[in-house]
Amino acid sequence: MTRGWSACAALLLCAAAARADEPRAEVRARLEPAGNALVGQTAHLYVDVWVTSFFTSAPELAPPEIPGAVVKLVQDRGVHLNDRREGVDWYGLERDIAITPLVAGALQVPALTVRVTPGGGAAVAELRTEAFQLGVTVPAGADGAPVARNLRLTQTLVPEGGELHVGDSVTRAIRVEADGTPGMFLPPLALGEVSGLSAYPKAPDVDDARRIDATTYVAQARGHYALPEVSLRWFDLDTKALRSARAPAVELHVLPAPAAPPEFALPEDARARRGLVAAAGVGALALAFWLRPRLAHTVTVLQQRRQARRRAREASEAWAFARLRAALRRGDRAAAVPALYRWLDRVPGAGAPAEVETAVAVAHEPEFARAAPAFLARAFGASDSAVADAAALGRAVGAARPRLLAPAGATHSAGSGLPPLNPT
Predict the structure, then answer these.
(1) pTM of the prediction?
(2) Domain presence at residue 69
(3) What CA–CA distance (Å, rounded) separates 100 from 105?
């Protein structure tokens, strides 16, 4: 009976030790600013994913859908983190989700699900963040003015100088930008119309950092003109006060149109040459009309063939291997990790999707078995020694590649030294 209890205790101790060796994962989230924000003020949800080994792939995280707000993932690759807690080293990736409220009220930020596979573990961990609530208000007296930091207006005039002739055109463009405010949240600017100038507004040019409104003016009559001043009221988040940004008025001086060159009569021989030139032009147009569909078909076929060859080349194992070796020679770990998996995806027997552990088992190459996990561990751990590991992995993949590309069974049977079963 005593021996039985001893055996049970030993099994429990072994199970506890095995669980202690399993890689762990956790997620932490925080909202900045916490609690309250203004309409148009961008808040940031920071999601930190931690493991005790390394990441075999990037954590899977989808930005939430929040009614009444625009949500965007700011950094695609994330920021590397390191920490040591209770004698255990943790390695993390931080993702930044920007949340810009459009309406006042209580904004509900739901809990997010994060999927991560720690290196050395067999299972995919599903982690949940906590939910947040953001109270959104409208600044007193803002009256629809944009809420921003360091908002500024700049204007350009093309061509410069302000002197035109009747029939000439000038384009006035005003750029509005503010720190941390996407262009889609900056209001449109009315550049105005001026009597004597025909105005042709252009479509706004908007991106993540600024908005540009432009109008082209065409001079219809001589005289002096002024393009009006453009101003924009905005609420300053730093001073908590209304401010105004201005683009000054632009003075234009329009001169009469240049005189047209005098007409003159052509001599008889010149008229004959003009007739020959016109006939040749008509013939050239007819020939171009006849050749156009045939040339277009030929060009289309050539383009399709070239695109097919390029796609075939980029889908090949050799192309992916060359990109991997180039990234490793540069010591570019951010490019080398996806390049490694892209190459393994095109190697027979490495799994679908490819896994480094499967490739190591198929290759039976000791240097590759050491270098690949070591490189991944340091790459995801943001260690400076990943450059040295990149050189080691570059040598290792060169040695493992022939084994990975060999026909099934060839790698293990080539060195057996056994004589053929039916010698002749």
Answers:
(1) 0.46
(2) yes
(3) 13
